Fold these 3 entries.
Entry 1:
Amino acid sequence: MLIPTKELKEAIQNTMLSTTKEKENPLYNILLEIKDGKLTAKSQNNITRITYTENIEGEGELSILIEPQKLANILKEVNEENISIEKEENTITIQAGSFKTRVKTLNPQLYPEIKENTEKQKICTIEAEKLKKLIKNTVYCPDKNDIAREYTGIFFEFRDNTVKATATDHYRLINVTIENEIQRETEFIIENSGATLINRIPLEGEVKILKTENEVSIETDNINVTSKLIKGSFPDYNQILLDKDTSNVIEIERESFKEAVKRSSTLSENREITLNINLKDKILTLSSQNQEGEIAEDQITFSNIGANDNLVIKLDSKFILDFIGQISSDTVTMIYRTAEEPVMFEASEEDFSYKYIMTPIIE
């Protein structure tokens, strides 16, 4: 039977992101089906699954379980508009123009079909670009190896027509907020790998977020991405957010701050960087030192928004760059109290607002 090459390529490229890594496992493969003019590709692992559907022209039925990378490599070299696939037992013959090859497949019955939960609750509709940005700006923060499972994922909150994404690894915490209409107020912790998968899928336009007791689904007209949720309660991060009215507040030009952190941390072997805030001269001095006593230092100016106390504090330079390297705001607000207490950075851009808390390095 003839299959449109473009649609088949897209089906394979999307679904191959959710297979297992063990070759002996049937889930190392994807299930490819054609029936009633519809192409369906499915993949799953122990955390995520993807279903991709596309209407195609032509008649006939096909059901195969095949290694996606092998098929993707073949399709990569095909330029014809359509490709012919004929199945004989556990082998398929692929032909496009003068090119022809035979590929082994598995019995489709080996694929463990999972029944979709029909009791999904719709949480909201959101622009795919915004959802992806929420994930991109938090997915770097969770501790993927933490024994406390709630610290290994991203905490999503949907209430008061806002969406918040929060992640932490005990040493730092990132909280990102956007305004968005909500149909059902809820909260959940999504697996880090599930969030990463959503961010990799080429979603466009608006997507629906739906939830069951144990899973969350992101749906478009032709893609359904599902991830398991982490059971447990995310820590009450509001207790560690700093209040501007009771803290020192300065404002820093973001790009200057980023470049100064990069330059001044060049000699740091353990990523330690010392920030010295001089309120009188409105100078922020950044410095690092290695075991040989060699020093790297840089200075930038800042605006005093509401600071009364100087500060000398040690922070992880990589942690700083993880945050300011992800955002594009013109300025960053630094909120602090003492050298022993956490420091909070705030920033806003377009529809997004950020709060980033870092624990200081105390010797």
Entry 2:
Amino acid sequence: MSKLLHIAVLSLLAITTVVAQEVQVGATDTESYMPRLQGRRVAVLANHTAMYSDEEHLVDMLHREGVCLVGIFAPEHGFRGSIEAGAKVQNGVDERTGVAILSLYDGNTQRPSDEVMRSFDVLVVDMQDVGLRFYTYYISMLRMVDACADYGREVIILDRPNPNGHYVDGPILDMKYRSGVGWLPIPVVHGMTLGEIACMAIGEGWAKSADLTVVRCRNYDHTTHYTLPIAPSPNLPTQHAIYLYPSTCLFEGTVMSMGRGTDWPFEVYGHPLMPDRGFSFTPQPNAGSKNPPHSSKRCFGVDLRGIADESIWSEGINIEYIIDAYNSLSMGDSFFTPMFEKLIGVGYVREMIKAGYSAEAIEAMWSDDVERFKVLRREYLLYEESL
């Protein structure tokens, strides 16, 4: 690793491939981080997934143990994880602990104020990521890493497994498409945990050099198919949706419905003008999507719920879904929105779809990106990778 990168990787076990033992997330390794919080002012960047145990949230545990909690930073979807995608998260107070909640996703706040940054000594980060470039939790984390580097604040990441951590796929982001849904020059599916991403970002100079500690997961490596105990966001309610998400989230950059406003977000796709193939759905406003695409309109489309997880793992990103929808609607370039390039990360995919290229030909275009990134990331992996 870069000599500029100061990382203490803490674990009770050596890096090994473990199959039989239950995965233990970083938060459970209290011996590695609790002594470092004693007598210090602590801020937490976390959401509803930061469970210390089946019954108790990390923040509740820290409060119970008498840790001096001075603030909770909330990412997209809010601290308790109930706010729909893209919606602003407001400041507030956590009812259970009385600790102030400070939004990092209110439409204005890129980083906390000077006063807030001076109010704590150490930042503890604990969020469940899903391993995709356009999933925003890592961006909130890296913005806080930069702020902590500027103010000399320590950062402790309590790592969690990546449910899509067993492969790498997709084009590396062309930084002219950098946005709030794509922050680093990495593939769509990067195959890294938040701890590993932070190590890479600092090591490659994409983030500032903070005093960073990663408390590793135990009994986990990049061959592990980890099932999330809690939905990481309102529209990823199932493990199957999480596996399909690298492919079906691309519909967010088109005129299609990807199932928001149904019980199967990111597991179906459709449009009112698609031909009837025997499957349809009608999006309706719900807790996860107050105004879903094509709300209250019958959408004809495709049901992906029957695809086996193993098939998704072996295929990786499947651009055939986008090609199928594009060809079915015959709308030309109006099928796409500018969000498409922000999600896929390059300009050539849209153009190749319009030109009639096959999914195989398009996916071959980013194969060199994938291999190049695999070599780069190897230096920063904290867990064994697939052979």
Entry 3:
Amino acid sequence: MFDTPLTLQGPLREPRQMLADQAYGGHSSIHDDAMAEKLGFRAGPIEGPTHFSQFDPLLAQLWGQAWFERGCLSAHYQNMVVEGEQVRAIVEMPGPGVRATRVRAEKADGTPVLEASASLGPEHPHSLLEQRMAQLRPPGRLIILEDMRVGLRGAQDELVRMAMDQHMGDLYPFSLRQKLAVITETSPWYHDASASPWGRPIIPIEMISVLAQYTSRQAAWPIRSPAVGLFADLEIRLINGPLFVDEPYLIRREVVALSDSRRTESCWIRTDILDAAGERLMAQTLLNSATLKHSYPGYEAALQAQPPSTTGAA
């Protein structure tokens, strides 16, 4: 009768900052207030994957527990959120039988936080990030990422797990239990085996990013440092989910794109999360980590001194 677009909306939430003590490459990250202010930002931002949790109740309303088994959320971040700001998740209602839609998050005043596609597999349309990658132009002369190449793989397979009280390292200086104490959307599925439809606690979708990044230093990427980066785009795709608490998984990584902008150099890395035997693909992440050019000492001098190259070629 009507063609009026309808939406599902969640409540306004105040996500918590968990990365104030994050460190990598021997220095603080952009999530540290002092470092953020040094780089021209008003405060350390909330880590981007945190916002994924606000979509879970809405997408589970559309697609049930299958969302945690075969869901894909593919997000482009638009504006940073600092602790104390409120955020709302919004999902466009798909037509009957349609397993894909657009979603977004915004602040209380309407400022956009992220735009994303959401879909339910196994057959996914092209995600938002797949579309963005297809439109990338070849990068200019790279300095921080000069030695990175599309097709480059991590130095080794990485074994990971996420136990309830496991400290997740310098990149993520907290445990799953600590995250669950402040997560914006709570569920007994995250901690109570008897309540979980799968008979085991599951890892929240936002924490799959933490699992994927936990051992990322083992990839030994040839990236120049010190330099400070941030998540510009993130996709989390479940294939044979959910992922379980305290279950071993194998990680494999590959550089799938390089790009740049006026302020950043970006490396797009696809991370496969497989069963411990490395035989069954359980989930994937696609991360565009954008490094701020001016955070690398002597960037302009290095750019002037660098001869033309074929940076970014396969």
